[in-house]
Amino acid sequence: MCIRSENQSPWPGSCVHVLCPGPQDQVFRHATGRLVSGQSDRWQIVQSDVLVIGGGFGGLWSAIRAAGCGSTVTLVDRSFAGKSGHSFFAGGAMMVLLPEDDLDECIRDIVAGNGWLIDQEMVEEVFKGSFYRLKDLESFGMSFRKSGGTYLWTRARGTMKVKNLWPANATAGDEVTLLRKIALSTGLVRIIDHAFIYDLAKASDGTIAGALGAGVQNPENYLFKAKGVILATNSGGYRGHHLASELQGLGPFMAFDAGAKIKNPEFHYINMRPAKHEIEGSGILPAIGARWVNGKGEHFMEQYDPLFKDRAPVLKIVQAAAREARAGKAPISMDVEGITEEEREKFRTLQVSHGWMPLLFEKCAREEGYDPLRNNIEWKPAYECNKLGLLADAQCRTSLKGLFAAGMARTLGINPFTGWSIAACTWSGYTAGESCSRYASANDWKSIDFAGAEESRSRFMNPLGRERGLDPDKVVHDLQKILFPADVLILMKEGSLNKALDGVLALKEESLSRMAAADLRTLIKARETATMLLSAEMTLKASLMRRESRDGIFFREDFPEPDNANWLKWILVEKGEKGEMKFSTEDVPFARYRFRPSS
Ligand SMILES: Cc1cc2nc3c(=O)[nH]c(=O)nc-3n(C[C@H](O)[C@H](O)[C@H](O)COP(=O)(O)OP(=O)(O)OC[C@H]3O[C@@H](n4cnc5c(N)ncnc54)[C@H](O)[C@@H]3O)c2cc1C
After folding, report:
1. How far away, in angstroms, is 235 Cα from ligand 1 center?
2. Of 250, 211, 256, 249, which is closest to residue 230 (Cα–Cα)?
3. What count of other Cβ atoms lies within 10 Å of the Cβ of residue 273?
4. How far apart, in Å, do the first and last CA atoms of the chain sit?
5. What is the 3-state secondary structure (H, E, C) of 226-261?
6. Average pLDDT over residues 247-251
7. Cβ–Cβ under 8 Å, residues 80 and 59
8. Domains of the chain: residue spans and CATH
9. How far apart, in whole angstroms, are the C-alpha atoms of residue 300 and residue 535?
């Protein structure tokens, strides 16, 4: 088995092959079976060299690469790998550094757009590998938009130089479905769908040696045993938006509980969304002539971002919209009159006709009688997800031995530039797969701490035992009421952050041990809700710490200017000895980096 790119890498040390040739006699070495003795007889044990949790871009690339390096892999997903998570719904724009592009200009764009708070070495690696992953995808059978043999590209929103390439049919759904097939075709990857992971499993020496799961469609208690584990479950959120409702931060927070460090808890992705119906386009429509307009008919973005105007980074548009609304100039609409007929047709053919978009355009017409490409409809800020993730290095190793992180479950940056996420998830999956496989080759399976596993399982099952208690959905609604007013996470200030924190702590106290579940579905919701409460506490505390603003990524009304002297730092959180959240900061290592702010 060998799938390789034709191009040779010009960069020393970067790997060109996605799947290295394995030994001829390599066989699938999974072992499954029940332990028959004592306290562990309830576990269905699934063993492999590498365990990947999550089947989006991060997880599938991890599995493909780990298998390419010769490891046996189990990939487990709570839904259906390759057809769930954010990856399946994405538009598919992917940043790629084409051979004629200037690497430094692209790095600088991304670094400056992240307020200088991004790992520059990682950004460089993402771009360096991007063309080779593109070639891998093409060798798998994916095609990208071209004209006369040349790639068609769009400029990523909020950047000056970076290019986005698009799948020929403008949806990432086909891409992840294809990655699933490629992973399975290696013969070394087993995919177990519909298994919900609720905790990591530790070995007796404290290293990460697997994960614990519950069958969603069967009554299995899984113990996934592995030499190395890759967490690729995406980031967190508060169900603010239906496309992001799957994100609660389960993966990063189970790693936090096991001792891993979380980075960037104060940052969020809040986007503009149509007030009545979902459609995608807050980034693409302004690129083809649409403009943001307030209730008084004023195009207001130029005053907030004279350079990028309506194509400003998304959080800047959200902040501007919130300030316009507070000044009595709501509603905020997308003025689509400036889009030419030709662009409208192109958008309809490429964006609207694929994936789930046609259904939503039809719904707009059927239920409201409007066409979002012709009528100026109201848009509002909607919370998508937070940008916290596991602290991980350039090899995607977390601070816990045996645990690696890929996709948005690790910090990949703050600014949700269109196209960056898929490029960075692809890079991190590929890298984590390779690192974890190498780690697995150098280590043996360890004996699992079964007492710890049993304890974790009974903690997870706890809400099932309560006859009466709180409904997790109700707790989430109460949490949303605390977090979603504009002065909490969009236009932050000390008073409103403290008030929200008090509310979250009270809600946590009142509900954490009182949620009840009558079935597995509600049990899972109870775990998700508990995670969201922790995440909310962490984000508010971290937002209070950062007493400054960073252009386009973080805005404190009481500290509206950047404070480069004190805040070119990352906030990190780990679990303290008594289970408390222990916050610290780490300076951005500019002595090692090539790009730095001018003042
Ligand atoms: C509508 C939309 C459009 C987008 N468009 C673009 C775009 O054009 N370009 C771009 O770069 N980015 C885009 N993005 C963002 C990008 O798609 C995501 O950031 C990226 O796909 C995340 O990949 P991931 O592998 O980290 O996570 P996901 O794709 O979310 O995968 C995580 C997987 O983990 C599984 N999982 C989670 N928790 C558990 C658990 N406890 N147990 C077992 N399994 C679990 C989930 O079921 C899921 O399959 C878009 C996002 C959305 C929502």
Report:
1. 8
2. 211
3. 22
4. 53
5. EEEEEECCCCCCCCCCHHHCCCCCHHHHHHHHHCCC
6. 94
7. no
8. 31-96+171-267+385-455 (3.50.50.60), 276-377 (3.90.700.10), 463-559 (1.20.58.100)
9. 34
Does an H or E element contain 191, and which? strand 189-192
CB of 62 closer than 6 angstroms to any ligand 1 atom: no
Which of 65, 76, 80, 87 to probe ligand 1 with, by most ligand atoms within 8 A of CB?
87
Pairwise CA distance, residues 572 & 389, whole Å = 10
Look up residue 546 and give its two tokens.
Answer: 């950062």
Contact 449, 203 (CB under 8 A): yes
pLDDT digits (tens, 9 = 90+) for 44-59: 999 999 999 999 999 9
Write b or e for each residue in 484-516: b if 16 or more Cβ atoms lie within 10 A of its Cβ, otherwise e: bebbbbbbbbeebbeebbebbeebbeebeeebb
- Which atom of ligand 1 has the smallest separation from the CA of 95? 11
Torsion from C-alpha of 556, 560, 561, 564, nearest 10 degrees: -10
Tracing tokens 């808890």 back to the chain, one arrives at 265
Kindly give the distance from the C-alpha atom of residue 66 to the centroid of ligand 1, in angstroms, as a whole number: 20
CA-CA distance, 18 to 6, in Å (whole number)?
Answer: 11
Task: Report pLDDT for 353.
Answer: 66
Question: Which residue's C-alpha comes closest to atom 20 of ligand 1?
Answer: 87
In whole angstroms, give the CA distance from residue 288 to residue 311: 10
Contact 227, 445 (CB under 8 A): yes
How many angstroms separate the Cα of 58 from the Cα of each of 302, 378, 427?
37, 34, 8
Q: Peptide bond preceding 331: is omega within 30 degrees of 0, i.e. cis?
A: yes
Sheet strands side by side (includes 163-165):
94-95, 163-165, 153-155
Mean of all residue pLDDT scores within the chain? 90
By mean pLDDT, which of 292-296, 356-360, 392-396 is the weakest?
A: 356-360
Instruction: Retrieve residue 580's tokens.
Output: 């408390």
The best mutation among 64, 74, 421 to test binding of ligand 1, ranked by most ligand atoms within 8 Å of the C-beta, falls on 421
More confident residue, 159 or 449: 449
